[in-house]
Amino acid sequence: MIILIKLLLAHLIGDFGLQFKSWVAHKQRHKIRSGYLYLHVGIHAVVTTLLLLPEIMAEPLYLWIPVIILLTHFAIDATKLTMGGKTKPSNFDTNMLRQQILFFADQLLHLLVIFGIWIWVDESALSSISELFSQQNLWLLLCLFVLTQPAAIIIKVLIAGWLPENNSKEQKTLANAGRIIGILERLFVFGFVVTGNWSGIGFLLAAKSVFRFGDLKEKEGIKLTEYILIGTLLSFGFAMLVSLLYLKLRAIV
User: Which residue from 18, 31, 114, 149 has the fewest beta carbons nearer than 10 Å?
Assistant: First the structure.
């Protein structure tokens, strides 16, 4: 497991700690011709080598790990830069979505390489991975997933008949902001209940009410106020119900 921790730490240092915005901008403009690309992957190799120095001194075969990191990191980053294309100011939303997808795909591939190396050099890696898929962890994953999109759809269906007619699409709001806020608040409630911090739920509800008060006061719509209140209480109630169910299941298994 120590190898995995060191590889993850080296990745975080190289990708986030020792990479600057000017480097990223230069790479996006010049692609694989950018010298910062080669400096970036070199830093990854050096940091990995330094962190694995005790293991390398004990087993010279581990010296291949920084080499693999260097080559795979270059291949993944070069592919991402090539697929990134040229930025078009007139199509900002599309550019932003593409960059977000490429960013997460890039990080996922780097992590897959790291886990692959860990499995290769550590005989206990597979048994450690199997422990992650214990029954308790699977219940946790299931409950967390239920609180995201499934809960959002269920609540939307329940209150669809009460949607105020004056809830015009012309209102200037962030796209999908309400859905994202709902998901985050349910995950926070889940965390508060599971850790026994019930007072945090009151704080969260109060904070949301404060931020919502100005909007509702300006609209002066009683129906909209009631609609938002019903949705909020359903969201909090649903999250608490799932949280209590998880606690019961955790106690059983």
Answer: 149
Question: How far, in whole angstroms, is CA 133 from its chain's centroid?
Answer: 20
The rounded distance, in Å, linking the Cα atoms of 46 and 60 is: 16
Cβ neighbour number for residue 82 with a 10 Å cutoff:
10
Backbone angles phi, psi at 195, to 5 degrees: -90, 0
Distance CA 5, CA 187 (A): 27
Separation CA 200–CA 239 (nearest Å): 13
Per the listing, tokens 């609180």 go with 147
pTM (two decimals) = 0.76
> Please, are residues 174 and 250 in contact by the beta-carbon 8 Å criterion?
no
| Token duo for residue 97 | 């979505």
User: Residue 133: what are its φ and ψ, rounded to 5°?
Assistant: -100, 40
**How many angstroms separate the CA atoms of 25 and 31, rounded?**
10
Distance CA 195, CA 169 (A): 39
